[in-house]
Predict the structure.
Amino acid sequence: MTTSTPLTKGELIDQRGRSELEFLQALRAGLTPLRKQVRERVDATGVLDTPYEDIAELRTRVDGVLEELQAQRLLGIILSWSRGVATPRAAAAFNRKRSEFELLATPAGEVVDHIGDDVPRYWDYEFHGTAGGWDGHPHMGFIHHEMIYHYLLKKIFPGDIFGQRGVIAAAAPAGTYERIVDLGCGTGQYTLKLAETYPTAKITAVDLSRTQVQYALRRAEDAGITITGIHAAAENTGLPGGEADLVTSFILLHEVPPHTIRQLFVEAFRLLKPGGHVHFSDVAPYSERSPYQAWLDDWDAAHGNEPWWRTSATIDLVQAAADAGFVDINQVAHGPESYPWVTTARKPE
Ligand SMILES: C[S@@+](CC[C@H](N)C(=O)[O-])C[C@H]1O[C@@H](n2cnc3c(N)ncnc32)[C@H](O)[C@@H]1O
């Protein structure tokens, strides 16, 4: 007798969608030898042998020795092109089987609207090359989660790219929390890990993308977990102050401009009870990366529609936390090359 593994939701896409996404997958996997050539050229030139002043100077220095390298040019072109087509192809695949996918994507519960149309100006950008932005389709949360992340990207990146979220949830300083706010919850990848780690906690998940938080609700329902989903800017949640004992986020900070990062600490402080913790996990500061990795992060961000990566990798988060009133501020690296990089602090009693 043979047993078969049930299909994931993303695997239900039609033959055309599968072949289009698998082509992109093969193309992205085929970039590894090009990346290797780039690394070899950088090492051979000795361009990283002396310390760099700042990231702009490092970029000029390394980009200069790669100018004539065909592999580097191809990398830029292929990455930009594949990012630009992935979401439209996935969205078209969704639309071809719309009635079936809608049943799998729609939550029973409602997302609570705390924002209306009052979205911040920086939101008007196609982050990661997502055509139409994070809400460019009524079910972009499902499309992103099931088709882009789990069907396409998960197979390209080595290791468990989602497992880190459980480690970060468990690394919050108190052993237990009762009221948690997850800022920039997306489709709930971190939210569900928080729920597993703190099973008695009441969890509020906030995102500026209505469709992402909507699919987070559905995923929580499928897992038998109750969360409250709020459509709001994380820096201005509209939630009551002084109620949470943990305000946390996973890879939200690098999505927003520096003044908003500072405001996120201010909002976290407002939301917390005295003695509560803020626990923000994000990309590693360039100063904690090797020079090659810092250059690569910055190059990838520039070619990957990540307008705020550089500023978030260079901003002083300890100062931002202190300015908001936090004490006991700690920063800890939880993985290789200092990613995820976590800033944790306490609101004084
Ligand atoms: C990289 S995703 C991370 C999602 C989730 N935390 C996870 O672990 O997968 C960043 C999320 O932040 C959201 N976002 C960006 N700016 C925001 C803001 N100012 N307020 C709330 N959410 C925001 C995006 O819509 C997106 O869902």
